[in-house]
Write a structure and sequence with these properties.
By secondary structure, the protein is of the alpha/beta class. It has 3 domains: about 10-125 and about 360-370, Enolase-like, N-terminal domain (Enolase-like, domain 1), CATH 3.30.390; about 125-345, TIM Barrel (Alpha-Beta Barrel); about 380-480, no CATH class. The chain has 16 helices and 17 strands. The chain has helices at about 60-70, 80-90, 95-120, 125, 145-160, 175-185, 205-215, 230-240, 255-265, 280-295, 305-310, 325-330, 360, 420-440, 450-465, 475, and strands at about 10-25, 30-45, 50-55, 135-140, 165-170, 190-195, 220, 245-250, 270, 295-300, 315-320, 335, 345, 355, 365-375, 395-400, 410-415. It has an 8-stranded parallel β-barrel, surrounded by 7 helices. The longest helix is centred in the N-terminal third of the chain and has 23 residues, at about 95-120. The protein is globular.
Length: about 475
């Protein structure tokens, strides 16, 4: 076991993304898709690796890579509030909600998993237990399914002990009532039926449908209108059937998103997704908000993370056992959670979240992977530093290894030569390259000696700024005319 005072530092990280095709085409009231991307962040300290993930676009992986390099490497894995706050400050001008929030979520979850593993405890023990298990509800029932596929899936969950099941609606509003009626007839009262419009209706449509669904015994209506329409949601909370709970919040990307839904009295049940809201840290804070304001709390998808969290949060009522995510988590992770009689019970024999990436199984779905580590000096790599810049002298390569060249790279000597000598070698190599191309007619309009003269002037400016050991991108990057093949 590692003590919180042992001086452990996050020495390396890996960000990877995997895109997994769906088992059949899927759609809901406002979207259609045929694959799902998962972004996985792994952080290592004292030889122990923590794992977190988000369901997001691959762009979130690029944001996570930059965040790990700039704010997480060399950080104390026990100081999660400080690291999370540093990420929030860094992304102020990146566009915090959406993709960036999903990146922060994966990193934050990885930090919590790492902390628990360093302490050799399951994450639930670290957070403190409110219950041993949490109710799950079967979720899928896509609008792209035929009526038979829809009925078979939802009744199958009921047969496996799920007390509640959910279907999608809204793609073809004129068919929604008949599809709901068919499912209710097949369920025969064995499970409560939830419906999710994913914001497909306007206010009047939603009110009319809520009355029709209420007559059919539906007890949960999710995102009747877009979650951005808090006034519309409040309108529907006030007017929908008393037996029906209005739920929303899966797009809570910030703490304020959750607060505003509660202040507007826009929901009966507040939902949140740990892979979007900012990770474990913010999921717990929103749970505390629900407890303070007397709202039930529901976890959106990602059951292998949410099962642990909802067993530690008092107002948590259920976890969405979403068809896509259950399938993906069992494909990619050893230790992925499985519902038993409609309940999720975290495995307390495993440290952290209890998940291990099955790399050999995941490899065929990989679309991005980037590894990062501290320099021998203990410093994190400079943002954007990478491995290969093939037109530089052979002994010289950027310290970090990801296969690209970016502004701000720091160069070190593999042969022990001074940084000053390295800089001169690069300058003369560039000048010779430019001059050779000019003589071959590849750079018309450039008189002899001009490229070398310009480069040496740049060198003088760098010396004046005391940046002889750091080469800026405009010097390293070839002019556009010099990039064409002769």
């Amino acid at each position: 076991m590692v003590s919180a005072r042992s001086g452990a530092r996050i020495a390396s990280g890996r960000v990877s993304a995997y895109t997994i095709p769906t088992d059949k085409p899927e759609s809901d009231g406002t979207a259609t898709w045929d694959s799902t991307t998962i972004v996985i962040v792994e952080l290592t300290a004292d030889g122990i690796t923590g794992l977190g993930y988000s369901y997001a676009n691959v762009a979130a992986a690029h944001a996570a890579e930059e965040l790990v390099k700039r704010e997480i490497l060399n950080g104390d894995p026990f100081d999660i509030p400080a690291l999370h706050s540093a990420m929030d400050r860094l992304v102020r001008n990146w566009g915090r909600p959406g993709v960036v929030s999903s990146a922060i979520s994966a990193i934050d979850t990885s930090l919590w998993d790492l902390k628990a593993r360093l302490l050799e405890e399951p994450l639930l023990a670290l957070l403190g237990k409110a219950r041993d298990e949490i109710q799950a509800y079967g979720s899928g029932g896509f609008t792209s399914y035929s009526e038979k596929e829809l009925v078979d899936q939802l009744t199958g969950w009921a047969e496996h002990g799920f007390e509640c099941v959910k279907m999608k609606i809204g793609t073809h509003p004129e068919q929604d009532v008949s599809r709901v009626a068919a499912v209710q007839k097949a369920l025969k009262g064995r499970a409560q039926l939830y419906v999710d419009a994913n914001g497909a209706y306007d206010r009047q449509q939603a009110l009319h449908k809520s009355e029709q669904f209420g007559d059919l015994g539906v007890t949960w209506f999710e995102e009747l209108v877009t979650s951005d329409d808090r006034i519309g949601l409040h309108f529907l909370v006030e007017r929908s059937p008393a037996v029906m709970k209005i739920a929303a919040g899966e797009y809570n990307y910030t703490l304020d998103d959750a607060r505003l839904l509660i202040e507007a009295q826009a929901v009966d049940v507040l939902q949140t997704d740990v892979t979007r809201c900012g990770g474990v840290s913010n999921f717990i804070k929103i749970g505390d908000l629900c407890e303070i304001c007397h709202y039930p709390y529901s976890a959106h998808t990602a059951p292998s993370i949410h099962a642990t969290l909802c067993c530690s949060i008092l107002p948590a009522m259920n976890v969405e056992y979403f068809h896509d995510h259950v399938r993906i988590e069992h494909m990619l992770f050893d230790g992925a959670i499985t519902a038993v009689n409609g309940k999720l019970k975290p495995d307390l024999s495993r440290h952290g979240l209890g998940l291990e990436l099955k790399r050999s199984d995941a490899e065929k779905f990989q679309v991005l992977s980037s590894a990062m580590s501290l320099r021998p000096s203990g410093e994190p790599p400079r943002p954007g530093s990478h491995t290969t810049c093939p037109w530089l002298p052979t002994p010289w390569r950027p310290w970090r290894s990801t296969g690209r060249h970016h502004r701000g790279s720091r160069f070190e000597s593999r042969a022990g030569t001074s940084a000053h000598g390295c800089l001169h070698a690069m300058i003369h190599r560039a000048a010779a390259c430019f001059e050779g191309r000019r003589q071959r007619g590849c750079m018309p309009g450039h008189p002899a000696g001009r490229p070398a003269h310009a480069v040496h002037k740049a060198l003088a400016r760098l010396h004046k700024r005391r940046l002889a050991a750091r080469v800026s991108a405009p010097i390293l990057r070839r002019p556009a005319a010099a990039q064409a093949t002769p």
